[in-house]
Every structure is written in structure tokens, then in C-alpha cells.
Design goal:
The chain has helices spanning 7-10, 44-52, 77-86, 98-112, 135-146, and strands at 14-16, 27-31, 63-67, 92-95, 122-126, 151-155, 161-165. By secondary structure, the protein is of the alpha/beta class. The protein folds into 2 domains: 7-23 and 102-165, no CATH class; 25-98, no CATH class. This is DUF2480 family protein.
């Protein structure tokens, strides 16, 4: 019987897995309705006092997504004032959903990565994951990989969808 050879493992094919950079506990959301009267009315002096008395330490070194879960009509400064209190603790404050904060996290991480190991190599942008990586993040990642990779496919080695193939060699 012939030995089974893993040709994928022997190839120069590189896997770029966005799940490796998933923020886990680094991204949290914060509903500001907790500081509103009945969840919908902002009384400025009470709001300021509650923010002043809040323990912000649980948000240390986190990306925080600020939102309001109610139909409250809020002045433009509301979220900015909460951000003033969060800024000394958090890494970043985003006005929006947790998904928006995750996308922002990935944007920052992907901007800092060194992509030289993918230079002139075929790359698979891994598409199957156990965690919910937002689709927008794949769009950010492909733009980074286009700058260095010889080719980029999406999915798994056994069923990859071709996305890009370089037309010429790039100088390092």
C-alpha cells in the first residue's frame, strides 16, 4: 500500500487565519441607558454624577463599544462625555456596536502586522472559523495580502476559492 502524502503540508502554501487575532475578551460593549432615568431620559447633573461614580477599571485595556439600547433621544455630547471617563482606562472607545469595535480591533492589528513571511507565496485566507469574524475583516485582510502575496485564495486548502494572482514578480 502506498504511503499517503500530504501535498498541502509540503507546498509553499501559507495560511493566514484571522481567528489567530480574534480579540476574545479585549472587546466589550457598554450600554449607556443604565445611566438614564428609566433608560430614556438624560438628566445632565445626575448623568454626570453617575459617570463620576462609576468604576471604570473593568474596561482597562479594552476596546469599548458604546451604544444605547433604548429609543432615547440624546444630545450629541452624551457619548463623548462617557468616552472622557473611559479614555484613561480603555485602549479605544467606539460609538457603535460590538461588531464595529471588533472590526476596529482587527483594523488596528492588521495595520501593525509584518507580512514579509507571505512575500511572493501562495496564501489561503482561511474562511472557516469557530469564532464569528466579521465579513468586513476579510476585506481588510485581503487588501494587506494583495501587497505581498503571489496569490490569494479563500477557504481551506481542500476547497479554496481563487481571489487573486499576481501578474508579475515584486521586488522585496
Amino acid at each position: 500500500m502506498d504511503e499517503i502524502v500530504n501535498k498541502v503540508a509540503q507546498s509553499s502554501l501559507m495560511v493566514f487565519d484571522l481567528e489567530d487575532y480574534f480579540p476574545e475578551e479585549h472587546v466589550v460593549d457598554l450600554d449607556i441607558s443604565q445611566w438614564l432615568l428609566e433608560g430614556i431620559i438624560l438628566r445632565e447633573s445626575e448623568f454626570r454624577e453617575q459617570l463620576k461614580n462609576t468604576d471604570w477599571s473593568p474596561f482597562k485595556d479594552k476596546y469599548v463599544a458604546l451604544y444605547c439600547s433604548t429609543e432615547a433621544i440624546l444630545p450629541a455630547w452624551t457619548f463623548a462625555l462617557v468616552a472622557v471617563h473611559l479614555a484613561p482606562f480603555s485602549l479605544k472607545v467606539i460609538h457603535g456596536s460590538k461588531k464595529s469595535a471588533i472590526i476596529e480591533w482587527y483594523q488596528d492589528i492588521l495595520n501593525k502586522l509584518d507580512y514579509t513571511e507571505y512575500f511572493q507565496k501562495p496564501v489561503i485566507l482561511k474562511g472557516c472559523s469557530k469564532r464569528e469574524v466579521p465579513n468586513e475583516v476579510y476585506t481588510i485582510a485581503i487588501q494587506k495580502l494583495l501587497q505581498v502575496a503571489k496569490s490569494v485564495m479563500f477557504g481551506e486548502a481542500c476547497s479554496a476559492v481563487p481571489l487573486y494572482k499576481s501578474k508579475k514578480e515584486r521586488p522585496l
